[in-house]
């Protein structure tokens, strides 16, 4: 299978003619040049020259011709090679705006910008087409992926119970494969031979994008400018933009690095880089300050079918609409904030603060319903696999056969996870106060402290003797019995 490769300047070599390639015989006025220019013209220029002057003039002509060849190739191929058309993951920010002319300059290619709507907000989409074309792109392709994102990526992770390192609900991790998949589709539609992204060489997202590219179309070339160019930061990028007449975004630069989609909002950088520093309250955007949350609790009922959410307070909603509804409800009650230090895939630790109001409510409800519908052994196996599932998603291996196989297992064991869970929301907390399921394994007639026909309490004596036999034998050995 062909491997995706990064085209770089090493793919092209330019050679000036060697002196041995210029053969002259002044005695018989014969010349043989292994280049494209005219021997007759050169012979006329050399007719009045002798000795070292011939060699000197010959070198000058050879250098001039070589320079013309190099300029001609660079004008069509770029400094690092030649690509026909590149699909760029485009946000309209400074970095991706600069990448457009950089791709054209360095790869001599047409650039098609691609933007995925995964619920980052209307403001993020304003004026994108004008920005993209002003930067030099031939077109902008926008796809609404919100329903696909929630249905095909968020819900499987929710069903699996996938949480990375005890806290992180995988907001960015789940969004990257759906965006990258759409980029591969667009590349095929527009006839592109490469894709590009603006991820840095220190983060997880570069891996998530590129593993998806590899899995879905290994023949696509991948260009990652942050791993190639000389731009080191924001000031360099602004200077490059001005030099290439790219309109620099005039929005106020946030002190935080943020990523937002329908599932969550992440905050990184600046004061958060010190793990001992408390986040500023004005940083949060999806959730209110707990002190400002309503003084009266709110009760909501979430309905699930086969492990997946279908309704809120009895109202059936599409996946994206349901999540939006819960984001609004959870946000006004200050639910879903986490502050954590996580292990990035590339090896370093990083500190991030996340807001996931609707996702927190859904995870709480789904896990609670399983307490009714899953037996002990199944729940323990599911929990152990959920850790591995989360690691695969975090590492960008969404299209890995192992994750897909695990997903089938999760789908199978949650067939009976159908019912409702009632939550009490109050100033940052979501407390489970009720759960119901027609497939409940809970039996009041068995669990009751009152005597029943099914469970005979006297049976416990024999069970305890057998269950405790290893403990008893060990104690007997220690006491010499």
From TrEMBL:
<feature type="domain" description="Arginosuccinate synthase C-terminal">
    <location>
        <begin position="256"/>
        <end position="473"/>
    </location>
</feature>
<comment type="subunit">
    <text>Homotetramer.</text>
</comment>
<keyword id="KW-0055">Arginine biosynthesis</keyword>
<protein>
    <recommendedName>
        <fullName>argininosuccinate synthase</fullName>
        <ecNumber>6.3.4.5</ecNumber>
    </recommendedName>
</protein>
<comment type="pathway">
    <text>Amino-acid biosynthesis; L-arginine biosynthesis; L-arginine from L-ornithine and carbamoyl phosphate: step 2/3.</text>
</comment>
<dbReference type="InterPro" id="IPR014729">
    <property type="entry name" value="Rossmann-like_a/b/a_fold"/>
</dbReference>
<keyword id="KW-0028">Amino-acid biosynthesis</keyword>
<feature type="domain" description="Arginosuccinate synthase-like N-terminal">
    <location>
        <begin position="85"/>
        <end position="247"/>
    </location>
</feature>
<dbReference type="Pfam" id="PF20979">
    <property type="entry name" value="Arginosuc_syn_C"/>
</dbReference>
<dbReference type="InterPro" id="IPR024074">
    <property type="entry name" value="AS_cat/multimer_dom_body"/>
</dbReference>
<dbReference type="GO" id="GO:0005524">
    <property type="term" value="F:ATP binding"/>
</dbReference>
<dbReference type="GO" id="GO:0000050">
    <property type="term" value="P:urea cycle"/>
</dbReference>
<dbReference type="GO" id="GO:0000053">
    <property type="term" value="P:argininosuccinate metabolic process"/>
</dbReference>
<dbReference type="GO" id="GO:0005737">
    <property type="term" value="C:cytoplasm"/>
</dbReference>
<keyword id="KW-0067">ATP-binding</keyword>
<dbReference type="GO" id="GO:0004055">
    <property type="term" value="F:argininosuccinate synthase activity"/>
</dbReference>
<dbReference type="InterPro" id="IPR048268">
    <property type="entry name" value="Arginosuc_syn_C"/>
</dbReference>
<dbReference type="InterPro" id="IPR048267">
    <property type="entry name" value="Arginosuc_syn_N"/>
</dbReference>
<dbReference type="InterPro" id="IPR001518">
    <property type="entry name" value="Arginosuc_synth"/>
</dbReference>
<dbReference type="InterPro" id="IPR018223">
    <property type="entry name" value="Arginosuc_synth_CS"/>
</dbReference>
<dbReference type="Pfam" id="PF00764">
    <property type="entry name" value="Arginosuc_synth"/>
</dbReference>
<dbReference type="InterPro" id="IPR023434">
    <property type="entry name" value="Arginosuc_synth_type_1_subfam"/>
</dbReference>
<keyword id="KW-0547">Nucleotide-binding</keyword>
<keyword id="KW-0436">Ligase</keyword>
<dbReference type="GO" id="GO:0006526">
    <property type="term" value="P:L-arginine biosynthetic process"/>
</dbReference>
